Amino acid sequence: MIKNMMSNRGIGKYERIFMIVSAVFVIGALFYMYVSSSPKTISPISGQTIFNPDFVFEIENGEELVISTSLDFTSPIILNEGSETDLPPGTYYWKVRNWLRESEVGSFTIESSVGLNLRKGNEKDLLENSGNVPVDVTKKKGGITTQIPVDVGKSLEVEKDNSSYEGRQNG
After folding, report:
1. Does residue 59 share a domain with residue 31?
2. Domain identity same for 105 and 130
3. Is residue 3 pLDDT above 60, yes or no?
4. Which residue did the predictor score with more confidence, 2 or 26?
5. Distance in angstroms (rounded) separating the CA atoms of residues 42 and 87
6. Do residues 74 and 50 touch, judged by C-beta distance below 8 A?
7. Domain count, the chain
8. Which residues contact 53 (CB under 8 A, 6 or more apart)?
9. Which long-range contacts (CB under 8 A, 24 or more apart) does 113-117 make?
10. CA dist 98 to 24, 28, 41, 124, Å?
11. Range(s) of the domain holding residue 128
């Protein structure tokens, strides 16, 4: 019956072969698009330890970057292109999503970085925490020692005198 219908409609042997080849081509093209559109995490490389807190994520074929401190991504941070976030030291898991798929999960660790800068001013100096952890600063002047806590990204004015300053990670 099918053979009779095809020959009645005028579909010949070459037309059927062309239709089969076209269908295989379309299926192959769709499969290629599916595989080639998979999102990828490029940087940081999975397992990488990061010492500089100012780093950039590199992704491919993704629309969203998903970051979490847990492997099951409870309470995730979701970033889109142009988004910024400050991540404290610790281990993180990350993946990339697009409209169709998710990448494999990668991990990275941000190491603690203690940084303390003393900027000279006209009347007072500025002591700033340039690291990514809170710092306890020890000020020493003439046998007197004073402890000063300085949070991440914060600074404070200090007198211009012959004091010395030393910073250690808080906690």
Report:
1. no
2. no
3. no
4. 26
5. 19
6. no
7. 3
8. 86, 87, 110, 113, 131, 132
9. 113/51, 113/52, 113/53, 113/89, 114/167, 114/168, 114/169, 115/167, 116/150, 116/165, 116/166, 116/167
10. 26, 21, 12, 51
11. 116-169
d(CA 44, CA 42): 6
**Residues 104, 60: Cα–Cα separation, whole Å:** 12
Judge if 45 and 95 occupy the same domain: yes
State whether 87 and 128 are in the same domain: no
Look up residue 27 and give its amino acid.
Answer: I
* DSSP run (H or E) holding 141: strand 135-141
86, 145: one domain: no
Q: What is the 3-state secondary structure (H, E, C) of 37-57?
A: CCCEEEECCCCEEECCCCCCC
Question: Residues 50-83: pLDDT tens digits?
Answer: 987 778 899 988 889 999 999 999 999 999 888 8
pTM of the full structure: 0.67
Centroid of chain to Cα 159: 40
